[in-house]
Design brief:
With 489 residues, the protein is mostly helical. The protein is 74% helix and 1% strand.
Length: 489
């Protein structure tokens, strides 16, 4: 298989972004958005096809893709396509809408390569490409609060980058390893305190990228102030890609002594702290977007439980962590994107959870789709989120870390307090002001309300994926997930 095959999905995404920017420069913004979304969809399709054909590629000695990693890459591109299509109306109305969509595509292109990266120089470049586009997407809202959020995100991101580079310098300079992850794994030996230091630094850097406690403070402001469609991508695609490469780096590169003790406690402590802080923080939020941001901190904690368990097993099984991460990314994308549809249907909405009162009557299909996404984030059966948590917590029990499973289950129960609060507001609470009548696509109604059909359709499509992922194992067992999410360790 040609080295260039590894760049096929990314090349399609980049081609769409470049052509889209060209059209946007010619004042053809709507065409630009369509082309960018088409490029992302083509990239996702190419990655899924490569996964289905069991295509394994080692490209340029810097990337190694197998079906599970193609699936993650395809999902990242698909989530970006959903964000651009779902945000079509808002992006087409914004002066910088075409540029925002292109930035999302560039971020997706870099994030799509991350799961398969095996060279640490390429790893740093890709992580920084994702981070820089993320800063720009937050600042793209062009408001004082978004500027502050972007600056906070940038400053903290710079510190995380320093930790990342320092950790890799320790591995390369102290241990005399090569630049590839397999070389590093071979160089790390028993009693390597330098390697343990590098492990701690890398864990902190990745915790920032994932938004885990206590490296999370950028996330609530960034997700609340960014345009909802862009927030839907920032909270899903890049996180999934970072989780995918973290799963390879930590259990595989840092396996055995001296990592079985202190490193496992670091991972476990980070997981528990993220679950506790994220869920307790979510309970206190009145803003819908900030509630989702805090829930994302807890979801990272659940994924870290899986990472801890895989360390203990010794022979990593990627299915639980990748399934949990994928289902979180899909459901979170739908939940964030719904904020845009709610805003369009009710321009007076103040962004609060209480302000969703009556949404179940105004937009019943949208409310139902959001409910499905929130139930999946909780981990309710018959949704995709259930199977991810079930496998991760089950793995914790069978590997002697039942305390992690207990914390995870209790955190999931607590999370229903804030997810359920949003559902209750939509269906049971009475609106504080008379509801605005529903409108047809593009048809303005009283008080400037416009039904954003594209955003609603995107949320409904996401909800259908969540339900399909939750129901499929009842007929197929876990064969589908095992087929496409298992790494050949």
């Amino acid at each position: 298989m040609s080295d260039w095959m590894v760049l096929l999905p990314t090349g399609l995404v980049l081609a769409g972004a470049v052509l889209g920017l060209t059209l946007d420069a010619g004042e053809r913004r709507r065409a630009a958005l369509v082309v960018i979304a088409a490029g992302l969809a083509a990239g996702a399709t190419a990655a899924f096809v490569l996964a289905a054909r069991d295509t394994a590629v080692l490209g340029f000695d810097a990337f190694g893709f197998v079906p599970a990693l193609w699936m993650i890459a395809g999902l990242v591109h698909a989530l970006a396509a959903v964000a651009v299509l779902g945000g079509y109306r808002a992006l087409s109305a914004a002066p910088n809408g075409g540029q925002m969509a292109a930035l999302a595509a560039l971020s997706a292109a870099a994030a799509g390569l991350l799961p398969g990266v095996v060279d640490i120089v390429a790893l740093v470049i890709l992580l920084e490409a994702v981070a820089l586009t993320g800063y720009a997407l937050v600042a793209g809202a062009r408001g004082r609060r978004s500027d502050e959020a972007a600056m906070k995100y940038f400053i903290q991101g710079a510190v995380a980058t320093g930790l990342l580079v320092y950790a890799l310098a320790v591995l390369y300079g102290t241990l005399g390893s090569g630049l590839s992850l397999p070389d590093i794994a071979r160089a790390v030996g028993p009693g390597d305190r330098a390697a343990l230091t590098a492990f701690a630094l890398l864990l902190a850097a990745f915790a920032f990228k994932l938004g885990a406690f206590p490296f999370h403070s950028w996330a609530p402001d960034a997700y609340e102030t960014a345009p909802p469609s862009m927030a839907s991508f920032l909270a899903s695609g890049p996180k999934l890609a970072v989780l995918a490469i973290a799963f390879i780096m930590f259990p595989v590169v840092f396996s055995g002594e001296p990592f079985d003790g202190p490193a496992l406690w670091m991972l476990g402590a980070l997981a528990v702290a993220s679950i506790v802080f994220g869920n307790l923080g979510g309970l206190k939020q009145t803003s819908y977007a900030r509630m989702l941001a805090y829930s994302g901190i807890a979801q990272v904690g659940y994924a870290l439980v899986g990472l801890t368990v895989m360390h203990l097993v010794g022979l990593p099984n990627s299915v639980p962590v990748y399934l949990l991460g994928s289902m979180y990314a899909v459901a979170a994308a739908g939940a964030f994107l719904a904020a845009q549809a709610f805003r369009a249907s009710d321009p007076a909405w103040d962004g609060t959870i209480a302000g969703l009162a009556g949404a179940g009557k105004r937009r019943p299909l949208l409310a139902a789709a959001v409910t499905v996404c929130l139930l999946s984030l909780t981990g309710i059966p018959l949704t995709g989120g259930f199977w991810g948590k079930f496998l991760v917590f089950g793995g914790a029990v069978t590997t002697g870390t039942a305390w992690l499973a207990v914390v995870g289950v209790l955190g999931s129960v607590v999370s229903f307090g804030y997810y359920g609060g949003a559902i209750r507001a939509m269906y049971l609470d009475e609106p504080r002001v008379p509801p605005v009548p529903a409108a047809g696509a593009g048809e303005a109604t009283a008080e400037g309300a416009v039904a954003d059909r594209t955003a609603e359709a995107a949320v409904v499509a996401v909800a259908l994926v969540v339900v399909a992922a939750g129901v499929l194992p009842l007929f197929d067992g876990l064969r589908f997930f095992t087929r496409f999410l298992a790494l050949p360790f």
